[in-house]
Structure formats: C-alpha cells, structure tokens
Amino acid sequence: MRMSLTIGAAAAAIAVTATAAVAQDWRYGGPGIGQYEAVAIARANGVVRIHDVEREDGGWEVEGRDRRGRDIEIEIDNRGRVTEIERDDDWRRASYGRGVTQGEAVAIARRYGIVRIDEVEREDGGWEVEGRDRRGREIEIEINSRGRVTHVEYDD
Asked: Using one digit for the tens of pLDDT, what is the confidence trace for 75-103?
C-alpha cells in the first residue's frame, strides 16, 4: 500500500513538472503574454486564418489572412497591446490570380537593367527578381501584383 502511494505521488510530480515545462516553453520562458493570448488578440483584430506566429522583439508577430482574403500581419507587444497592423494593398489582384505573370515580371526586371536572372520567386502577391546587371553587380527588383517596381537594390 505504501509502495503504491509513493509510485502514485512520483507519477503525479512528474506530470505536474512536465505540464509546467510545456506551459513555460509555450510562453518561451519570458514575461508577458503567451502564444495563445497573441493568437486571440490577432483574431480579435481581424485575422481569420493564421499562417505564422513568431516571437519578435519581446512580443509576437502574427501573420495570416483577414475575412476578405488579404494578407495581414499584426505585431503585439509583451503586454498584449497591438503595436502595428499591416494589410497587403494588392490583395484583389494577388488573391484572384490576375496579377502579373512570372514572364511579365522578368520582362519588367530586364527593363530595369537585369541581364542575367539568378532567381525569380513569389513575394507578397508580387515577384522578387534577382540577378546581375551589365556591370556584373547583383541587383534585386521587387514588383507588385500590378507590375509596378516597388524596390530596386544593388550590391557591389
């Protein structure tokens, strides 16, 4: 009888310790709100489909889509206050596939000086084209879903 009580008490202690460890890990061991609270706050501010939840700058960053299908990113500080809400303005064209094609993005990038294409990838509803210009410099061009160049960066 005494042996079964000792084993039962040990099992209960292990279960409590394991539960506490999981709870601490879920909060990343830091002060402030945990991931569950961050997701609840994001949902209260328009996120209906969660894509990613990350710990950032002592708070949380929640990425997903709103009820209209737009990309939305919400930053929440460690006290649970929303510090930034960012929505993708190109959602109409990007969501329904009527944006520029990969071939059109490459053609636009060539007009901006890329002569050798190294990489073309989807980025925020538009395209990011990386390559080299005539002088051999690395060049990165971001093109939104409407075909407008939104960023050009050169690396020597």
From this structure: 899 999 888 888 775 544 444 345 788 88
Contact predicate 76/38, CB 8 Å: yes
Taking alpha carbons only, the member of 99, 151, 107, 153 closest to residue 125 is 99
In this structure, are residues 64 and 47 in contact, taking their beta carbons and an 8 Å threshold? yes
Domains of the chain: 2-92 (3.10.450), 99-155 (3.10.450.40)
110-131 pLDDT per residue, tens = 998 899 988 888 888 888 999 9
Question: How far is 143 from 102, CA to CA, in rounded Å?
Answer: 10
Name the strands in the sheet holding 71-76, side by side, starting at the edge strand that comes first in the sequence.
49-56, 59-65, 71-76, 82-87
